[in-house]
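Before the break, one more example. Copy the sequence into your notebook; we will annotate it together after we see the structure.
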Amino acid sequence: MRLLSLLLLASSVLFANIELPENFQADFTQKITNTKEKIITYSGKVRFSNETLFKWSYEEPTKKEVCTNGLELLVVDHDLEQVSAYLITQGIDIAKILEKATLHSANIYVAEYENKQYTIQVDKKQHLHSIAYYDDLDNKVQIVFKHMKYGKGNLPTQSMKCNYPKNYDMIQG
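Here is what the structure looks like once it is written out:
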């Protein structure tokens, strides 16, 4: 009986999903390494709400905002005074990726989604710590979250929108 309990516990841990909160806010560092080992590092703040709303506020090396509602992606480049709008045909659906994640070791999970392999690391509280994957151009992408705050309910809609002056150039992609 004791062995059966241990086996059930082990299997529940092995196939445990990472729980995605209703919302989260964090600082992030995004490191992109191309096939020639050239690295570019971005940093800023990220907000997530309602499984589809994301707002990435890049602060370094350039000031940029990226907002999505799951259907459209808006990129505001404040240095270029330009806004680009794209319909999303493929994107990173973090909820679906985390749903497919299986425990690999201690605090590391792996998931396959849309023919991409994702490595997800969580902290001691089981909060997201990092996500790594290869993008469509074979760049290695690693996003590390710091000061992660999980919350309940949706974040205010206005806080999830990209704000920009009306005189910025608009490009429809």
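The mean pLDDT is 84. The radius of gyration is 18 Å. Try to locate both features in your own notes.
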